[in-house]
Amino acid sequence: MSLFVDYFKKAGVLRIMLALLAITVTVTAPFAGEHAVKEGWAIVPTIIVPATVPIIFFVIWLDVLMASVFRADAVGDEVKRQRFATIVKLDVVLVSVMTLSWLPYFYSIVAI
Description:
The protein is an all-alpha fold. The protein has one domain (2-110). The chain contains four helices and no strands. Helix 2 (13-27) runs parallel beside helix 4 and helix 3 runs antiparallel to helix 4 (78-110). The radius of gyration is 17 Å and the shape is elongated. It starts with a helix and ends with a helix.
């Protein structure tokens, strides 16, 4: 448990919130369906979440870019370099899992 708390302190609140949002979006991928529902709570998995997936995708890649820049800037400080390397790895895993879970949905939309 202390490993999780230690990582939570190192990663920061915004990165943890971004990771939780990406996990939530990934979990809702099977409920998206192929047809949009325009009323009731079914709007969330069929319209709102699929619209936010590309935004979250690019925000995570922006975080990867910024963590890489900060890692390159931390010359001589191995603790900071390791911290940002861990953040990059976590972000790449998150975006990979999110992409794999949403790939069938977006493929079904663009497939003719």
